[in-house]
Specification:
This protein is mostly helical. Among the domains are: about 55 residues, no CATH class; about 55 residues. About 50% of the residues lie in helices and about 10% in strands. The longest helix is centred in the last third of the chain and has 46 residues.
């Protein structure tokens, strides 16, 4: 009686590969490319890791918060400010000091600073506490005030100059009538024109005319 040989499937090399292996082999061509993308590598990073990387990049891209310089005014506080030149590199400001022990308002004093490294802390805190809009409005008001003062001074200066000119003209008329040739002339019309003269030049012209007429008439002007 012949023995029946049991064949172990796991040891028999002739057993065919599973269907999945056949699919993988069918997927590959001569150039060994993975046409169906079956054998793709696992992802290098997960979605949440990529989002975390984006957040980190955005955080790094944000401008760093400006570091505030040390407050330079002790217990005082800037309450008013305006620029002192067209370039806005000069700043005038008013500091108010703390109220007194009896509740009386604290004193105020005015300061000026330039936009330099030395004055950086004061420049920063005046702009922060008073505010850029308020400083701009105060500057415009100050310019308007100075313009009004300048116009007022110009008017006052013209008035002073006119008064001085009238005083000089009045004295020149007195000097003219003290001249013998003017005092003794019979030409009343020319004398009247000297009195009505409105400038030194006009007065001089009439005086010269009288001297010329008197000379033509034979009257020699006194030395």
């Amino acid at each position: 009686m012949s023995e029946i040989k049991v064949v172990d499937d796991f040891d028999d090399a002739s057993v065919k590969e599973p269907a999945s292996s056949e699919a993988e082999q069918a997927n590959r061509t001569v150039d060994n490319k993975d046409r169906l993308n079956i054998n793709k590598e696992p992802p290098q990073s997960t979605a949440w890791e990529r989002e975390a990387q984006v957040d980190k990049q955005q955080e790094q891209a944000k401008p760093k918060k400006e570091e505030q310089p040390k407050y330079p005014f002790n217990d005082a506080e800037p309450i008013f400010a305006y620029y002192g030149n067209d370039k806005r590199t000069l700043l005038f400001f008013v500091l108010r000091h703390p109220d007194g022990p009896q509740g009386q308002p604290g004193p105020t004093d005015t300061h000026q600073i330039h936009k330099t490294k030395e004055h950086d802390p004061a420049w920063f805190w005046v702009h922060k506490l008073v505010g850029q809009d308020a400083i701009n409005k105060n500057t415009k008001k100050e310019i308007d005030r100075l313009d009004k003062m300048r116009k007022k001074d110009e008017v006052a200066s013209k008035d002073r100059q006119h008064k001085m000119d009238q005083e000089k003209l009045f004295q020149a008329k007195i000097d003219a009538f003290e001249m013998d040739v003017i005092r003794n002339t019979t030409n009343r019309e020319m004398k009247s024109k000297i009195r009505r003269s409105k400038s030194i030049m006009e007065l001089t012209a009439y005086v010269g005319a009288i001297i010329a007429l008197e000379t033509m008439n034979g009257t020699k002007p006194a030395d």
